[in-house]
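To illustrate the input format used throughout this study, we show a single complete record. The first block contains the structure-token representation of the backbone; no residue identities are included at this stage. The design step must infer an amino acid for every position from geometry alone.
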């Protein structure tokens, strides 16, 4: 049986309030992707990960641990676990992905760095001050905790004199671009997805045509990007200019079908069932699928197993535009 939902939500909220992330990561893990890139610290424009890609292997491990606990006698002690979590980060003992798993997700921000540099964009990074956005807590209705955390993020951005944030994933994008302005007074930071930045810089057009890639890919639109942030055309233009033939599945664009996230940490069985339905739709259109969200990638690739291949869009774009 699943763990008590209220206690799990409580632990996630407590973590955000006490440790600045629903699933706290050591600084050396969160910033591993920056090694060797020579990114300046801070500046008017920064690449902001919100730790989303770095968090995914830990979230995946946490979900697996929750399922095991729910099926054992330990599932009865989630209330005690929350109390202990006030003093010790219990999630650190539940999810320990391998270095190989972490490196797979770290590769996405690395790809984005190379793409933005190819586009001639000047930007820095915030390293250990690149804080989680609070996206999952906001989705779960933990409004007071999210407002408090958003103030911390805004304070960091002001500290470094940041005027423009370039984001990597849809959840961080919508939090910093659409949610923060609603809950914070005086928030005036410009926020753009790197896909939008590349499109604005002419990638996908005549000026920056990529090295032609062969093949067909099925594009899975992120719910958040497509429905809330109007990021629909940019990924299609960038991939098409790279030489790929795009196939749209049933339910595409603003009508896209959810991958099952972000509720996998609360309702893993329901999330998996939703992912399986989406994989079936994608499989009807092709065998190679493209995602642009870390949650979509992990949920759909896990549901597909060996029946489909999934890649993050940054992998295709870096191969086409920086090789």
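Output of the design step:
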């Amino acid at each position: 049986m699943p763990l008590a939902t209220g206690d799990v939500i409580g632990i996630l909220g407590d973590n955000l309030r006490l440790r600045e992330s629903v699933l706290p990561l050591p600084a050396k893990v969160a910033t591993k992707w920056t090694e060797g890139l020579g990114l300046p610290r801070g500046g008017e424009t920064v690449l902001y990960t919100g730790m989303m890609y770095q968090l995914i292997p830990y979230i995946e491990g946490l979900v697996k641990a929750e399922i095991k606990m729910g099926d054992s006698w330990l599932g009865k002690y989630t209330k005690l676990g929350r109390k202990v979590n006030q003093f010790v980060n219990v999630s650190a003992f539940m999810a320990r992905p391998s270095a190989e798993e972490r490196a797979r997700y770290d590769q996405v921000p690395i790809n984005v760095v190379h793409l933005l540099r190819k586009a001639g964009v000047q930007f820095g990074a915030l390293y250990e001050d690149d804080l989680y956005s609070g996206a999952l807590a906001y989705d779960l209705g933990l409004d007071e905790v999210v407002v408090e955390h958003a103030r911390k993020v805004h304070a960091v951005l002001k500290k470094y004199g940041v005027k423009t944030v370039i984001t990597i994933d849809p959840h961080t994008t919508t939090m910093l671009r659409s949610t923060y302005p609603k809950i914070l007074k005086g928030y005036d930071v410009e926020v753009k997805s790197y896909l939008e930045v590349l499109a604005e810089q002419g990638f996908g057009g005549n000026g920056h045509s990529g090295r032609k890639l062969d093949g067909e890919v099925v594009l899975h639109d992120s719910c958040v990007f497509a429905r809330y942030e109007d990021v629909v055309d940019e990924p299609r233009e960038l991939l098409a200019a790279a030489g790929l033939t795009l196939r749209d599945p049933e339910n595409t664009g603003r009508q896209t079908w959810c991958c099952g996230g972000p509720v996998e940490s609360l309702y893993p069985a329901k999330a998996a069932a939703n992912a399986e339905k989406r994989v079936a739709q994608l499989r009807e259109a092709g065998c190679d699928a493209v995602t642009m969200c870390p949650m979509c990638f992990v949920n759909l690739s896990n549901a597909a197993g060996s029946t489909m291949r999934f890649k993050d869009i940054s992998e295709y774009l870096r191969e086409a535009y920086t090789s």
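Structural context for interpreting the output: The radius of gyration is 19 Å. Residues 70-77 have pLDDT under 50 and may be disordered.
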